[in-house]
Amino acid sequence: MLGADGASRNAALEALRAYPGGLQVGGGVNAENAVEYLKAGASHVIVTSHVFEGGELSEERLSSLVRAVGRDKLVLDLSCRKREGKYFVVTDRWQRFSSLEVSAETLQRLSESAGEFLVHGVDVEGMQLGIEDELVAVLGEQSPLPVTYAGGVRSLADLDRIREVGLGRVEATVGSALDIFGGNLPYQDVVAWHRAGDGAGAGAGKGA
Questions:
Q1: What is the pTM for the complete model shown?
Q2: Residue from 118, 67, 63 nearest 89 by CA
Q3: Among 140, 161, 170, 187, which is 20 to 30 Å from 121 by CA?
Q4: Torsions phi, psi of 106, nearest 5?
Q5: Cβ contacts of residue 87 below 8 Å, gap of 6+?
Q6: DSSP-derived 3-state class of residue 113
Q7: pLDDT per residue as tens digits for the range 60-112
């Protein structure tokens, strides 16, 4: 949900009521309003900036969310950028580097407070430049939870690449590349690719 005028919130609530149990919702989610979205029909809530304070992970805020909704209903969005050969979570509209590295240790620790991970490769997000192979490999090898990668997908070949590099353990989102959002990749082709898969798949969601 983007924007602070309430329009996106109302649209999200309408979508949740139309497809109960089939959608995750994120954007401004916190410990106070997360339950409302679950009651409205969300399968999970996606949390990003709320669990970071002063650019660093707030264990207190994360714990509050877990108490409010339970870890199984919580998706942690670990949007990250590469610096000095490693991927670090970024906050404040993806401009501020935290000290939280996307690593086996971090993913294992955070898995105790979440049911899934959503990881944006910020350096290629929305650019249709191809995926971050190295990041996908890290997720496939090291994530102890179901994990979805977002960023740079432009073709079915990129989805095949995610499946290969991610060892069949990494899901994907497709956003601006889809024809329904003005791109060149037919939405129906992505649906067919997913249905023909062997367990690893892709979700088609703008900005997911």
A1: 0.90
A2: 118
A3: 187
A4: -65, -45
A5: 80, 81, 101, 102, 134, 135, 138
A6: helix
A7: 999 999 999 999 999 999 999 999 999 999 988 788 899 999 999 999 999 99
